[in-house]
Design brief:
about 450 residues; guanine-nucleotide releasing factor; Rossmann fold; DENN_domain_containing_2; alpha+beta; guanyl-nucleotide exchange factor activity; Beta-Lactamase; dDENN_dom; five-stranded mixed beta sheet
Length: about 450
């Protein structure tokens, strides 16, 4: 209970702007994209040239006197010294939170001889609103006899799941040889600048008996799709259900996703959040909820969370307000509000269904990157059709500051069903935040009235 309270205090932050219902951005938020023209590609977290990562930590399970297992950090690289008081407190908060997100499944573990390694990620939001991603590889250390899995977790402010998965492949390969072989590889990575979109960085790494290896790490061309795997969503849910989820997310409702595998939860929830691009989910966002934070589902404000299937009964027993509960194992909705079919304008919804079904039928043809681009394009096109005229309804003052004319913006929509939907959408936090950025984005020009 005490660690749960600590996490809530250390991860919670005030929203940049309170919503109309008083809701605020909270504990975990997905990658923030800078806003430009609607549909414009933009960078996810930090620019090229940053450090690849802040820390590599190893989280192991330690047996407690009562027989339970508790996750503890057993290795940290690099060790940071001479930190200022504020930095030290932030580091302590971070290092105390990481183990729970590396082993969110609770304390019921038994040593095993076989374990299929899995990759997943989580997002932590600091008190000041800055974000860090934890990229995790849970694996069984090499050896004989029964043993417990451990997690290698890379903490970075950079959002690029595919690239960090490849780094974790290299970490796992070295772990099977010796922990000592991991350090020089991570040191080489830390000394290399993060590449620009579409560029490659080459890391030299020596492995005993194999010699020096050259590891090439290439960043995708489209930076906003770096943290996304739409294929994971399309493989588990029908296009029809994906649109129900998308519609609920657009109205900032409560969304709960269920699966047993941590990788499925984190991949699918990141994908749902990415469907909203160029808008950003601005509320509680926890792709894998640690067992001690399951009461998050009692929160009256919007949230998007992932919960392991074994906790379904506990979730259903919570005093919960209306929520959409999605079973990613069976590809079905367990609980709905009931109006999901009617939220989106009919004509646009049908066009998107046709587009998603086309991608679904060609799954064996397209690469992961192609699926990402095609799916993203369909959803961006939806937003362009619906609200793409927003820029012409920002009134600019002489000082260069803009003022969005909401009434005229809605009135300009000729379709009644589209106008009805947009009148709800403009009241959301994500639209307010997008417009706030747009109102600031014009460079003041001489004589502009």
């Amino acid at each position: 209970a005490s660690i749960g309270n600590f996490l809530r205090r250390s991860l919670r932050r005030a929203g940049r702007r309170e919503g109309k219902d008083g809701a605020s951005a909270a504990e975990n938020t997905p990658p923030q994209v800078s806003q430009g023209k609607l549909g414009e590609r933009s960078s996810v977290f930090c620019s090229a040239g940053q450090f690849f990562f802040e820390y590599l930590v190893v989280v192991s399970l330690k047996k407690m006197p009562d027989g339970r297992y508790e996750p503890k950090i057993t290795y940290q690289f690099p060790k940071r010294e001479n930190l200022l008081k504020g930095q030290k407190e932030e580091e302590e908060r971070l290092l105390q939170a990481i183990p729970l997100f590396c082993f969110p499944d609770g304390s019921n573990w038994v040593p095993v001889t076989e374990f299929t390694s899995e990759t997943f990620s989580f997002v932590l939001t600091n008190v000041d609103g800055s974000r860090k991603i934890g990229y995790c590889r849970r694996l069984l250390p090499s050896g004989r006899g029964v043993r417990l899995p451990e997690v290698f977790c890379i903490i970075s402010c950079l959002g690029c799941f595919g690239l960090f998965s490849k780094i974790l492949d290299e970490v796992e390969k070295r772990r099977q040889i010796s922990m000592a072989v991991i350090y020089p590889f991570m040191q080489g990575l830390r000394e290399s600048p993060f590449p620009a979109p579409g560029k490659t960085v080459t890391i030299k790494s020596f492995i005993p008996e194999s010699g020096t290896e050259l590891i090439e790490l290439t960043r995708p061309v489209d930076a906003h799709l770096e943290h996304v795997e739409f294929q994971a969503l399309l493989q588990r849910l029908s296009p029809h259900l994906i649109l129900h989820i998308f519609a609920s997310a657009m109205l900032e409702r409560r969304l709960i996703f269920l699966a047993e595998e941590l990788s499925v939860l984190s991949q699918c929830i990141h994908a749902v959040a990415a469907l909203l691009y160029p808008f950003t989910w601005a509320h509680t966002y926890i792709p894998v909820v640690p067992e001690c934070l399951l009461d998050t589902v009692c929160c009256p404000t919007p949230f998007m969370v992932g919960i392991q299937m074994r906790h379904l009964q506990r979730v259903l027993e919570q005093p919960m307000e209306e929520a959409l509960i999605v079973d990613l194992c069976e590809g079905k909705i367990i609980q709905a509000v009931g109006d999901e079919e009617e939220i989106l304008p009919g004509k646009l919804q049908n066009e998107m269904l046709v587009s998603l079904n086309r991608h679904n039928n060609n799954n064996n043809v397209h690469t992961s990157e192609q699926v990402n681009a095609l799916v993203s394009e369909a959803f961006v096109h939806f937003f362009v059709r619906l609200v793409g005229h927003y820029a012409s309804h920002i009134k600019w003052g002489r000082s260069g500051s803009g003022s969005f004319q909401e009434r005229a913006f809605c009135k300009a929509i000729t379709s009644k069903s589209c106008r009805r939907f947009v009148k709800k959408f403009v009241k959301t936090n994500m639209f307010s935040l997008f417009i706030e950025e747009a109102e600031k984005s014009r460079i003041p020009q001489e004589g502009n009235g």
